[in-house]
Amino acid sequence: MADLLRITNGERIPRAAIPSLALEEFLQALSDFVKADGYIVQLFAYRDGASNRLLAVLRNEALYVAGTEVGDSFPSLTKTASKKFHMFEREIAEQYGIRPEGHPWLKPVRYHANYAGRPDVFGNDYSVDIPGNYDYFTVEGEPIHEVAVGPVHAGIIEPGHFRFQCAGEEVLHLEIQLGYQHRGIEKMLTQVPQKRLPIICEGIAGDTSIGHNLCCCQAIEALAGLQVEKGASMVRVIGLELERIANHIGDLGALSGDVAFNPPAAYFGRMRGEFLNLLQVLCGNRFGKGLVRPGGVAHIMGAEQHGLIAKKLVEITPEIKNVCDLLFSAHTVQARFDNTGPVPLELAKELGLVGYAGRACGLPYDVRTAFPTERYTDLPGNTNATTLGDVNSRAAVRREEIMHSLSLIEMMLGQHKGEHKSVQMQQYQLAPSSLVVTLNEGWRGEVSHCVLTDDAGRIQRYKIKDPSFHNWTGLAMSLRNQEISDFPLCNKSYNLSYCGFDL
Amino acid sequence: MESILAYAIAILAAPLFPGIILKVKAFVAGKKGPPLLIKYYTLAKLFRKGSVYSTSTSFLFRMGPAVSMAAAVMALLFCPLAGMIPVLSFQGDVIVVFYIMGLGRFFTILAALDTASPFEGMGSAREAFFSMLAEATVFMVLILFYRLNGSLSFSGYFSGDNPITLTGPNGSLLLLVIVSMFMILLTENSRVPVDDPMTHLELTMIHEVMILDHSGPDLALIELGAFCKLIFYSVFIAHLLVPAKALEGPLYDVVFVVAVGAIYVAIGITESIMARLKMNLVPKFILTSFALVSFAAILTTMGFI
Question: DSSP assignment of A352-393, as one string?
């Protein structure tokens, strides 16, 4: 770790301070770090003048950063070091045309031409409007049948392609191919006027608008040297936790609906709406859009809003407890949840699962306690009792998180005294030649944004990582040797983002 | 004449009863639910539409809905409704009826396979497997009834000199049959806990997935067939529940219709208080019904009753 620079969450680092290692040293350092129970937060390429560079942000108990210069290719670490590199290396190949030599399954992540205008690593012609020119893993043999689901689905959900290799009802392998919603957000963020940044970041994944936007605003704050008032910071925590509760409740309802147990599905559906309505009380938008802005929040939480939220929480908390009891005490539901879609702890570590998907496997990592920002520095963390890695654990972890989040909001409401200013988006002069990495525990897990500025203070590279980037592989592994009819249930227990992954 | 009238009423009323299930489920979930006549509206909507056919399908795909509907409607012909004698009846008609319904299923499966969709193939496999197991229970019930009553026709079962009824000498055995036949009703009509008629998730479906590619009037025929099939099983159970000789005339008919309604309410309650079974547990569920009837049949052979 001597070669890596230790940083903190949301801290501005001069680019000159980032250790620039030789490629071999860089790869060795990454490999060593990851093998010693380290995880990758970000690993991406960018153009610096005429050369390609790689930048890695790693975490164990602390955050570290390192960079290197790279040519047209580099030796892949996926095969030699860890599966954690798998998607990151594919993304580097796709975004900048840099080939990870020896990568075991090199195919596009999202299907778009690379940003650098270099020859395509995959040999695709992107002017042809086809769903994707790439191989799928296949299992051969007389009893094997292949089931392709999507990208257009029966429900009102996002597009994604799932390819199952089955022997009867048993799934031998599931491959997930996404990218259908690729909008080029990372590229767009370097080109648009600064004041559009929070608005675009709120649209990275519609159900994580506060999580992603908080990362963006914290990055701008670090680069522009802005301070956030304590009161505004509390409102941010309340917003993020309301978003978490609304999504977890919606998913518990959907899990219940997927096993055809209707009453909780109906009750949870109504309650999700109540929490979205609280976000509307807070900022005028049911999905928390327009709440967080660099320097604070755009809406003041006055006595009226404070009262409405506090009153609703008192009313709804016992209802949530009751409906959770109804769901978790029904033995037919337990029979469906238990032992369905398990991911063992060792595998979860190897894949680097984050958020509730990781915590349900026994990886306690939570950005709110590991690298706290805002008021999370003073707030208690959560612990999970059921960590077997199956659907039941993922559901139980969500239940525990709902209760924990409710208590956090209560604490914030108790501490929130008096007024704070409302801030609107302005044009800020960003610090030149700097790097900032921000992490937040969005409702799905670790959301991370990484911003590099050039010597004029313009954004040169904006890298986004949604927790789904790690966790989609977890879903694929959950299905190994499971019944194909349990796929919708497993899928819902993760409820990963398509657009957050596709960017 | 009365029988034909009753038959016509049964078919016309068949879409009403599933509305009861939806109402019960909505009530338990604290919702208002769709109107009671929702299935009529659905049928009217579907009949007004056109059907879409994939170019990769053949005449089999178009035959499926008509045959499955016709099979279900035909089965009702042999079924005594309330106090009426059935429209058609002969010795051995019970076997004909269950195989006519088997024929309907066979063509539904063919039509599903004809689409070459992997989903429909999976659904067909499940449907064929589960209904094969259900057939064992049904025939065990027929064996039992033959031993009790010596008849092989529905009218012989329920309206002869020696009707099969709860108040009869073998009433206690019928409790087992009622539970088994209710389980078979749930299985054969793709209800929870075997299948989920509400789901949109193709990978978990059994019956619904086989008809994914049917649209418009074709879908309406399939739906109508499904309603008739459900009412057939409900009437079968209602005959076991309502004592044939104790009540006379119109009162019997009223009680009978209420009993049929109660069976639909029971389906609604079952669907509200339990989740679906994992797919690999469904065979155990069906075979449980087989075990219950076998137990009843064994009791008759051992001379206890």
Answer: T--HHHHHTTT----HHHHS--GGGGGS-----S--SSSHHH
Q: Does the beta-carbon distance from A258 to B201 stay under 8 Å?
A: yes
CA distances A121 to A74, A89, A101, A103, A129, Å, are 13, 12, 11, 12, 18
B192: which chain A residues are within 8 Å (Cβ-Cβ)?
260
Q: Looking at the predicted structure, is the pLDDT value of residue B287 above 80?
A: yes
Element (H, E) at A45: strand A39-48
Distance from C-alpha of A258 to C-alpha of A332, rounded to nearest angstrom: 13
Q: How many CB atoms lie within 10 A of CB A468?
A: 28
Taken in order A387, A393, A399, A405, is the CA torsion positive or negative? Answer: positive
Cα radius of gyration (chain B):
19
Segment A352-381, tens digit of pLDDT: 999 999 999 999 999 999 999 988 988 888
CA pair distance B136, B209, nearest whole angstrom: 24
Tokens of residue B107, six digits: 């063509």
The residue among A257, A486, A487, A485 whose CA lies nearest residue B206 is A485
Q: In B, residues 18-37, which contact A (CB 8 Å cutoff)?
A: 25, 28-31
pLDDT at position B303, please? 65
DSSP string, A53-116: EEEEEEESSSEEEEEEEE-SEEE-STTTT-GGGHHHHHHHHHHH--EEET-TT---SS----TT
Mapped onto helix, strand or coil, the DSSP state of residue B12 is: helix
Which residues of B are less than 8 Å from A147 in CB distance?
Answer: 118-119, 122, 203
Chain A nearest-CA distance from B119, in A, is 7
Axis-axis angle for helices B171-188, B118-149 (nearest 10):
160
Q: What's the fold here for domain A209-458?
A: Cytochrome-c3 Hydrogenase; chain B (1.10.645)
Q: What is the pLDDT of residues B78-137, one digit of tens each?
A: 988 877 888 898 999 999 999 999 999 999 999 999 998 888 989 999 999 999 999 999
Query: Residue range A392-399: average pLDDT?
Result: 94
pLDDT, tens digit, for every residue of B125-181? 999 999 999 999 999 999 998 888 888 998 888 877 778 888 777 788 889 999 999
State the average pLDDT over residues A147-170.
87
Looking at chain A, which residue has its C-alpha nearest residue B194? Answer: A260
- The ranges assigned to domains in chain A are 5-131, 209-458
Helix (H, G, I), strand (E, B) or coil at B196: coil
Q: How much is the ipTM here?
A: 0.88
Query: H or E element: which one contains A262?
Result: helix A262-283
Short-list B206, B166, B204, B202, CA closest to B186: B206
Residue type (1 letter), A319:
E
Radius of gyration of chain A (CA): 22
Q: d(Cα B151, Cα B160) in Å, to the nearest integer?
A: 9
Averaged pLDDT for residues A443-457: 93
Quote the CA–CA distance of A483 and B280 in Å, as a whole number.
8
Chain-chain contact of B275 with A330 (C-beta, under 8 angstroms)? yes
